[in-house]
Amino acid sequence: MKNRLLELLQENCKYTEQELAILLNTTPDEVKRQIAYYEELGVICGYKALINWEKVPGSDVRALIELKVTPKRDKGFDEIAQRVMSFKEVEGVYLMAGDYDLAVFVNGHTIQDIAMFVAKRLSPLESVLSASTHFILTKYKSNMVDMQNLTSNNDERECVV
Amino acid sequence: MDYDRFLNSRIKNSKPSGIRKFFDIANEMDNVISLSIGEPDFKTPWHIRQKGIDSLEKGKTWYTPNRGLAQLREEICKYFERRFDVTYSPETDVLVTVGGSEAIDGALRCIAEEGDEILIPQPSFVCYEPLTSMAGATPVIIETKAENEFRLTPQELEEKITDKTKMLILPFPNNPTGGSMSKEDYEAIAPVIEKHNLLVLSDEIYAELSYGSKPVSFASIKGMKERTIVISGFSKSYAMTGWRLGYALGPKEIIAQMTKLHQYAIMSAPTTAQYAAIEALKNGDSDIEEMREQYDMRRRLIVDSFNAMGLSCFEPKGAFYVFPCIKSTGLSSEDFASKLLLSKRVAVVPGNAFGDCGEGFVRVSYSYSLSHIKEALKRIKEFISELENEKK
């Protein structure tokens, strides 16, 4: 079952309740109620601008760190994930199936900053077995958005009659 | 050289389409937001494209049978039974054509003769009138009305029938109005058709884009199948315009003649497109559903916005067009469209491009993304308020 309200908000969270009501064939009050419900459930986690930092001069370097870790007997991966999350340099943490356990997205001013963060902060953590650092060169697509404008926006359709 | 004396006067005397005019001007301008295109903005669903590619990889590059691939004709008949409750025989009642347009032309050329009158409700797609004239018959226009949501009423039909009337064209769901005939609307005109022993050419290319109710085929109306040629295709429902594939369904005696014409003029519809279309019919129902829901959201937004601006616009039940009335601005359709284009860079099509009775309206297509539509509506709203300020 598709959730059109969430799809629309994901596409553009600036739609007004009135507009959403028209699009979804319901009332603004109902839209308001549903949004409040999703916010409370934590399904809608926030409304933030999508910023392409690569276009901002002097902005951060980003890296993906693959961490192999030892899960704890009763806490599983949660404890180490929580520890990693707490660093302000860390933008995202995912538990993965496959060759490594945690995918950690990290920001830093320079490549050196990130290298030092991995060497001095992440690697020494008790559960961490290994860390492999990959620097992100270009963000092509993020949050459903073509960040490099590679996709042609030109309407190629012709008027044929 | 005097080419005039060589050229066929029926073709020469047909007017060029009025939809193009503004499109061509708009194309020369920067920062234009168009709402003028009459084809889906979606790309053909990937699994359908993949089957076309597969057929090429397997070297399926020959002609198909004149009528179309047997498997495709079977799938078309299954689809028609599933969606419209009408049973056709794949062997004799189906012709696969190069788009719905070829089927319309073929049907007219197989039926119309000099002296025959063909009834054409307008506003409607621009091809019926010239194709009727080119086939040698006389087009007789029935003007449908905004207060009836541009549906055809039995009285309007009856009034235009003479002893020369041979066929009625039914262009529903309608381009450009979005008007749609319900089962009851069709049942109301059926007795008139029967009484005057008319044939019907029912162009149902937009049938899958019906909102709020299940689409109806005119052939499903009691007693009408034997006198109806149904035109449909893949362009609108599966976003396959460029594949050029449509079909005609009808009594085997008519389809046989259309097949003969098609055999000599076309031979067979594109092979790659036919393989892709088999996949569309077998596994494409959910694609139609998804696209219809997207169109439906845009439709509601656009109808609501026009009415809020004071351009009255009935809620169209089909296709992907709205047909707002612009009479309140005091401008003609052409003036409205050209002023809107020049001052706000928004392209729409004047309603009179679809027949004289489209004067006072413009066709607005919603086969565009929501963000595109929102920007265009914002500009149209500014345009309307500026017009009102000028008046004061």
Could you please describe the fold and organization of this structure?
The complex is a heterodimer of chains A (161) and B (392). Helix content of chain A is 31%, strand content 21%. In chain A, strand 5 (141-142) and strand 6 (145-146) form a beta hairpin. Chain A is an alpha+beta fold and 161 residues long. In chain A, strands 2-3-1-4 form a four-stranded antiparallel beta sheet. Chain A starts with a helix and ends in a 15-residue tail after the last strand. Chain A has two domains: 4-41, no CATH class; 54-137, 2-Layer Sandwich (Alpha-Beta Plaits). The longest helix of chain A is centred in the N-terminal third of the chain and has 14 residues, at 28-41. Chain B folds into two domains: 3-44 and 286-391, Aspartate Aminotransferase, domain 1 (Alpha-Beta Complex), CATH 3.90.1150.10; 46-284, Type I PLP-dependent aspartate aminotransferase-like (Major domain) (Aspartate Aminotransferase, domain 2, 3-Layer(aba) Sandwich). With 392 residues, chain B is an alpha/beta fold. In chain B, helix 6 links the parallel strand 3 (117-122) and strand 4. The model of chain B has no long low-confidence stretch (mean pLDDT 96). In chain B, 42% of the residues lie in helices and 12% in strands. Chain B starts with 8 loop residues before the first helix and ends with a helix.
Short account of what is shown:
Chain A is an alpha+beta fold and 161 residues long.
Q: Topology, pairings included?
A:
The complex is a heterodimer of chains A (161) and B (392).
Chain A: H1 4-11, H2 17-24, H3 28-41, E1 61-69, H4 78-85, E2 90-95, E3 102-108, H5 111-122, E4 128-135, E5 141-142, E6 145-146
Antiparallel strand pairs in A: 1-3, 1-4, 2-3, 5-6
Helix pairs in contact in A: 2-3
Chain B: H1 9-12, H2 20-27, E1 33-34, H3 46-57, H4 70-84, E2 94-97, H5 99-111, E3 117-122, H6 128-134, E4 138-143, H7 154-160, E5 165-170, H8 183-195, E6 199-203, E7 228-233, E8 246-249, H9 252-265, H10 271-283, H11 285-309, E9 321-322, H12 333-344, E10 346-347, E11 349-350, E12 362-365, H13 370-391
Parallel strand pairs in B: 1-10, 3-4, 3-5, 5-6, 6-7
Antiparallel strand pairs in B: 2-8, 7-8, 9-12, 11-12
